[in-house]
Amino acid sequence: MENVETQQAPLPKYAGFWVRAVAKLIDCLVMLPITLGTLWSMSRGVETYLLCQLPLSLLAVAYIVYFNGRYGATIGKRVMKLQVLDISGAKIDYKQALCREIVSVAYIFLSCVFSWLSFAHAPSSESALSLYIGGQQSPALHFVNLAMQLFVFLDILVLVFNKKKRAIHDFIGGTVVVRTHILVPHPSI
Predict the structure, then answer these.
(1) Rounded to an integer, what distance in angstroms lies between the CA atom of residue 84 and that of residue 41?
(2) Fewer Cβ within 10 Å of end Cβ, the chain: N or C?
(3) What is the rounded distance in angstroms from the CA atom of residue 9 to the CA atom of residue 3?
């Protein structure tokens, strides 16, 4: 009887907090025009902000969902040589990419609704930025913002103490983020 050696595929190297944080920072730079658009709309008055808030927020989520669903990595992840995979190691699809961002989508929806309710009766000439800074947001909007901050904290905590470095949004989407030395093929970058 011959001794047949079986070759196992190498285990993936899971992406930890710091490399993912740098990738997120790069993505924030890519999305800087969206952030500047939001700040601009906040400084122009309540009506302008309320009209721009939802489309600008959804544009930011669309960037993440599109790149993760299409290429398995946002621009920041590509630069840091990371890839989002299905838990089985397969490429993710748009549904999984959206599921990873479902908490962000819910936050956007709730913050828009409560912003509209908070600022609907404010003078249209007053800037939304001064209302936020002045603490004139409704308790519900304040609660939604605090809940999102808590989610981000817990997301990081789960990522740091999880063997496969999966954050809560990875569990929701059935995904894992791995380091790769081969950049994901992308025709336009």
Answers:
(1) 33
(2) N
(3) 19
- What string of DSSP letters covers 9-69? PPPP-B--HHHHHHHHHHHHHHTHHHHHHHHHHHHH-HHHHHHHHHHHHHHHHHHHHHHHH
- Which tens digit of pLDDT belongs to each residue from 113-148? 988 888 777 776 777 777 777 777 778 888 999 999
- Split at pLDDT 50, 70, 90, the class of 184 is very low
Length of the chain: 189
Please tell me the pTM assigned to this model.
0.82
Percent with pLDDT over 70 in the chain: 88
Helix (H, G, I), strand (E, B) or coil at 181: coil
Question: Which pair of structure tokens corresponds to residue 136?
Answer: 């004139």
